[in-house]
Every structure is written in structure tokens, then in C-alpha cells.
From TrEMBL:
Domain of life: Bacteria
Organism of origin: Massilia atriviolacea
Pfam families: FeeM
GO molecular function, one term: transferase activity
Ranges for domain N-acyl amino acid synthase FeeM catalytic core: 1-141
Protein name: N-acetyltransferase
Keywords linked to the UniProt accession: Transferase
Gene3D superfamilies: 3.40.630.30
High-level lineage: Bacteria, Pseudomonadati, Pseudomonadota, Betaproteobacteria, Burkholderiales
Coiled-coil stretches: none
């Protein structure tokens, strides 16, 4: 997906103990992937371009993580699949790794989507990301905010009213607790 869009780089998944890649499937076919990177002594990928912004959060005691390598089949228009993928990502970040703040590097043309659909906030002007040789903004999301939105809207897709975010397509908090318990039990 990234090469098709003209981004440079190999876009390969690397064996990294501080990253986990999740996939969404439909009838045996991969329809989406996303990677969660958890902060470590070597940092996160976004440090290469936006370390000054991310260090401000670290200095306040935040445990940071990043979302990267999101790719979703453009022919699949499933808010359920995308919501589920992001919710599992949240469960890993919040419940498994105890992260407090998430970052994502976004091409400027995708910024409004992440702001409106998930509540991300822009943290920087445009900078060139050398990994993909493309412009990027750094966006931030409080995982406390995400948890509150899941509490408020998760699992209400049939009765979402005028809500335009992706949160009604997340699991309910009860379902989240069950998934988190199962993931924690398998280590």
C-alpha cells in the first residue's frame, strides 16, 4: 500500500521486541494492518523527525507509544473492521503496555481524518519524514481520552445518532475487558 502511494522505503515488518503488528482479516484475506511501537531506550520511529515534541511528553512522565504502518484495503469500506483494529491496538497500548500517550506521523492530507475520527491533536507543522520521503505532521492522542470515548460510545454503532467518529464501531467496555483479560492470560 505504501509503495503504491509513492512512499519511499522498504515498509517491511522488522523483528522488534518493542513493536507488535496487528492484522484484520475478512474471509481469510488480510484487509488491514497496523503496528504499535512502544517506547524503549532506543525510542520510537517518530523520534527520528519529531523527538523534540515527543520528549516534552516524556519529561512530564508519559509512557509513549506510536501507531505506524497502517494500511487498509481501499476496497473494504468497513468501519467495524477499522474500529476493531484500532480498539485491539488500544487494548495492547493501554492494558498490556500501560502507555498513556500515542503518536502517529501522518501525511498532511490524512490529518483531518485522524482528528475527527479518533480525536488526535496536531503537535507539529509539516516536516519531511526521510523514512518515506514525504511530508508529515505529528499527531498525539491521550489514551485516557480514547478510553473515555470508548466508554461513552463503544459498541453503540446501531444507535450512534449523529456521532461521526469511529468510536461507535469499537467494542463495548465489557467486551474490551474480556479481550484484555484473555490477552493478559496468554502473556
Amino acid at each position: 500500500m505504501y509503495a503504491w502511494r509513492g512512499y519511499a522505503g522498504t515498509h517491511r515488518l522488522e523483528d522488534n521486541p518493542n513493536q507488535i503488528t496487528l492484522s484484520a482479516f475478512d474471509k481469510g484475506d488480510v484487509i488491514g494492518t497496523v503496528t504499535l511501537g512502544v517506547d524503549s531506550p532506543v525510542g520510537i520511529l517518530a523520534d527520528e523527525v519529531f523527538k523534540d515534541h515527543i520528549d516534552e511528553f516524556r519529561a512530564r512522565g508519559a509512557k509513549v507509544c506510536e501507531i505506524s504502518k497502517l494500511a487498509f484495503d481501499p476496497t473494504v469500506r468497513s468501519k467495524f473492521a477499522l474500529g476493531s483494529l484500532f480498539h485491539i491496538l488500544y487494548i495492547y497500548a493501554h492494558h498490556i503496555y500501560q502507555c498513556t500517550d500515542a503518536f502517529i506521523e501522518i501525511n498532511p492530507r490524512h490529518r483531518r481524518y485522524y482528528e475527527h475520527m479518533l480525536g488526535f491533536r496536531t503537535q507539529s507543522g509539516v516536516r519531511i519524514n526521510p523514512r518515506v520521503d514525504a511530508p508529515a505532521h505529528l499527531l498525539w492522542l491521550s489514551l485516557d481520552f480514547m478510553g473515555a470515548e470508548i466508554e461513552r460510545l463503544g459498541g453503540v454503532h446501531d444507535d450512534a445518532g449523529t456521532e461521526r467518529s469511529l468510536y461507535p464501531y469499537f467494542f463495548s467496555k465489557r467486551e474490551e475487558a474480556g479481550i484484555a483479560d484473555r490477552l493478559l492470560s496468554i502473556g
